[in-house]
């Protein structure tokens, strides 16, 4: 018998193999200072493009005040126990009511964490008799939830409605043979890497042909899309046709927790079957009341979303004018596609951070195909025109270096040793 840990440590982890050089700089970086459009990294001030604080609520003075007041009054422990047994309060139920009204649904269930919640939702909804059909570029929390599913699961090509219809035909044929089970379709409102919206309107249209239920993960759409910020479904005019609407508080709300909304019957079912909530401590009241305040600010201050989109358009139009490829994004998420390998990506990223004061995230193989680099920029309502212009100038200059091949042979030292 072999030692389990020896077997694990002997594997060639495609990401972890670079940890000796990357840790503390390219991976697990330490950001300091207040959460804002400018922070400190490696003891230098940088323009920050890696925070999902879309509406700039993290350091909003009213948010900071309510967080401080509620924590001082209740601490972080209250209430103790799970919601079902001893952790329920009027404030939890108020937030659920407020969210239901905001996203046009009958009822809502609060969740402690988005990732954990999505896994448990999928597990609760589908038995071995049911079929799940999901978008190929679904978030990891959806993919991991599918791993719990003991029945059939079919994948459709990303945002390819014709392929989704093909998979629905497959599911229908299989279920007619079995004579039991149903179909759940899962997609996202906004895909976090490419920034493109899920084709919710077209998916909903397929309900005229097939009897399926639709679960939408709208972590990036909630607060950023729609007339009032109710998300991608509102933006596309099909929010009421989404059977289960899921989102988190960690992005536009700059907080902790998540929620799922839908018809009262199915939400009540989840309330009594969602293992990640039944067997976990209730969301602390400091976050609950803080989230009530954040939702109120979103409703009363539409200029926050307007400012976010003003900044996003200025950044995206500026990049496109300078010849950068932003792919198919139609959200505020701004991916910048370039050609090159991991050596070029890390050398360029180091140049951006150290010499131009621009901090953003980079994605390379094996997450995406070889010889492709994606720099992912997240605009917020806090960014200034100066931030945007400085970033456009920096990207223009480093692209000249990349195209000239000057990053190809650069040796990247162990940056953690220089901090």
TrEMBL record:
It comes from the Bacteria. Keywords: Acyltransferase, Transferase. Its EC number is 2.3.1.-. SUPFAM superfamilies: PLP-dependent transferases. GO terms for molecular function: acyltransferase activity; pyridoxal phosphate binding. Its cofactor is pyridoxal 5'-phosphate. Residues 44-393 form the Aminotransferase class I/classII large domain. InterPro entries: Aminotransferase_I/II_large, AON_synthase_class-II, PyrdxlP-dep_Trfase, PyrdxlP-dep_Trfase_major, PyrdxlP-dep_Trfase_small. This is Pyridoxal phosphate-dependent acyltransferase. It comes from Myroides odoratus.
